[in-house]
Design a protein that fits this description.
Length: 284
């Protein structure tokens, strides 16, 4: 089979491509390398430095794709406050361009949503744009009968996560600080709780969803939204204690939700998705 992965040199995209290649699939990546890394490129995948907004050039590189995994986005809440226009252009304009390309090709698409929508879509530009992407998928599904599914991610961590720069997750930040012998920085009171989900489990959910979506005659994923979360949450203080060492507290960041926890079981019931990786094991 042939897959297109947008954001293919990013954290989740790299892990997804690695898994897809194991079954000798043909994989093509499109990424503008704004947050992804050249060093994440894997043998066996074709990589193109293309912005997802530049969909008119896709046909130069991509032929006869069976399925699209749309992961390309400007992530994280805090950078979106500083760059709302760029965030909107990438996350919303890029998504509708890709959806329209898929409509022309009649190619199914799995969209990477965000669990931050549960905290309110108007809390920050990032969450708003990811929600808009979901609504566009629903629009193209209902108006054009395009096969689409949405997979919402919960606080993903694991190999290839960023540990430098403003797009780091808290696990990436703690990992860097611990390895460098630095003090762990905790925002606010540290009692905010997060449902941390290992990237291997996220990839498993994406692939299960995508393969089901291709099954046009009997797809349970078409038009659905799946919550991909471990179903266990920890306070940031508890996570810092798992890493160990000295801690310090810094100002709370605006636009963040207090708690995340996946309680939706649809992915387990319809896709037979069962997350298995535990945060404490990874940290150890």
């Amino acid at each position: 089979m042939k897959f297109l992965v947008t954001g293919g040199v990013g954290f989740i995209g790299t892990n997804l491509i690695k898994e897809l290649l194991k079954d000798e699939n043909e994989v093509v990546s499109i990424d503008n390398y704004s947050t992804g890394l050249k060093e994440n490129e894997l043998d066996g995948c074709k990589y193109y430095n293309v912005n997802v907004c530049d969909y008119k050039s896709f046909d130069q590189y991509i032929k006869d794709v069976d399925l699209v995994f749309h992961l390309a986005a400007l992530p994280r809440i805090q950078p979106s406050f500083k760059n709302p226009l760029t965030t909107f252009k990438t996350n919303v304009e890029g998504t509708i361009n890709l959806l329209d390309w898929c409509r022309e090709k009649n190619t199914p698409l799995v969209y990477a949503g965000s669990s931050s929508t549960h905290g309110g879509v108007y809390k920050n530009p990032y969450t708003f744009t990811k929600w808009q992407g979901e609504e566009l998928c629903n629009l193209y599904s209902k108006v054009y009968s395009l096969q689409t599914s949405i997979c919402r991610f919960y606080n993903v961590y694991g190999p290839h996560q960023l540990t430098e720069g403003e797009y780091c997750t808290v696990i990436g930040i703690f990992e860097r600080q611990k390895n460098n012998g630095e003090v762990l920085t905790i925002t606010g009171d540290g009692q905010q709780r997060r449902d941390f989900t290992h990237v291997d489990d996220i990839v498993d959910g994406l692939i299960k969803c995508g393969l089901d979506l291709i099954n046009e005659n009997n797809s349970v994923a078409n038009g659905e939204t799946f919550e991909l979360g471990r179903g266990i949450n920890y306070s940031i203080n508890e996570v810092a204690n798992m890493f160990g060492g000295e801690k310090t507290y810094i100002d709370q960041k605006k636009g963040e939700v207090r708690d995340t926890l996946c309680i939706d079981s649809k992915a387990k019931e319809l896709l037979n998705w069962n997350p298995k990786r535990n945060l404490e094991d990874y940290i150890n």
